[in-house]
Design a protein that fits this description.
The chain is built from 5 helices and 7 strands; from the N terminus they run H-E-H-H-E-E-E-E-E-E-H-H. By secondary structure, the protein is an alpha+beta fold. It has a 7-stranded antiparallel β-sheet with strand order 1-7-6-5-4-3-2.
Length: 226
């Protein structure tokens, strides 16, 4: 019985010590890792800006083969997003915002049952290379054990970011994107033509019915005039 009491006392002291250490930790987490890449900035930017391209380099996708990803209507740029669910990675959603082409992207992260966080990427020209910085910010609150948990996990997150940046570099080199759009412009002189039209307004609810009615009227006019 005395041994059990001693074990419980040691355990209680350990909990108190961990709580005190946790209280001493900061309530916010900032992780930032950078890497210089040889690929053109447009190709690197494209790997982050296009949601489906995250499959090429996401370190969490590689760590959790059970992860299932759902993409939404906006494929890239401001408002683009996807959600995920997996046995190892849990569930959440990531959304792109404040996208500045070839310069920076802000990410909003929502972790199911674990709050929210922000992050992003910066793309800076350095000589013949592009310096890419991936950062993450989160408020962990007043729970001392959560503060301690995040402090202990920072090193692992930094390693994960390094792997992700290396994968972005590799994917950008394998999938080059031109920094300037290529256009093929051809000038043609078109012959004069007659046309028929009906000018009208419509709401979302009535547009289908009105289009059908007006196309029918135009078709009848064309037939009557041969």
């Amino acid at each position: 019985m005395k041994i059990l009491k001693k074990i419980l006392l040691v355990f209680a002291i350990l909990i108190i010590v961990l709580a005190i250490i946790g209280w001493m930790m900061p309530s916010s987490v900032h992780i930032e890792r950078s890497m210089n890449m040889k690929a053109p900035v447009a190709s690197i930017f494209n790997q982050v800006n296009v949601m489906k391209n995250w499959e090429n380099w996401s370190p969490w996708k590689a760590m959790d083969p059970t992860m299932k990803v759902t993409y939404y209507d906006i494929p890239s740029g401001n408002g683009a997003s996807y959600s995920w669910v997996g046995e190892e990675s849990g569930a959440g959603k990531i959304t792109l915002s404040d996208v500045k082409e070839n310069e920076s992207i802000t990410t909003g992260l929502s972790f199911e049952g674990q709050g929210e966080a922000t992050g992003g990427f910066r793309f800076e020209k350095e000589g013949e290379e592009t310096k890419v910085t991936w950062y993450f910010d989160s408020e962990v609150g007043n729970n001392p054990f959560m503060r301690l948990f995040w402090k202990m996990g920072v090193g692992m997150m930094e390693d994960t970011f390094d792997k992700g940046l290396a994968a972005i570099s590799d994917a950008a080199e394998k999938n080059p994107v031109s920094s300037t759009p290529s256009y093929n412009i051809e000038v043609k002189v078109m012959p004069a033509a007659d046309y028929l039209f009906i000018h009208d307004t419509a709401s979302i609810a009535t547009i289908g019915q009105k289009l059908g009615t007006h196309y029918g009227a135009i078709s009848a006019a064309m037939q009557s005039q041969n």
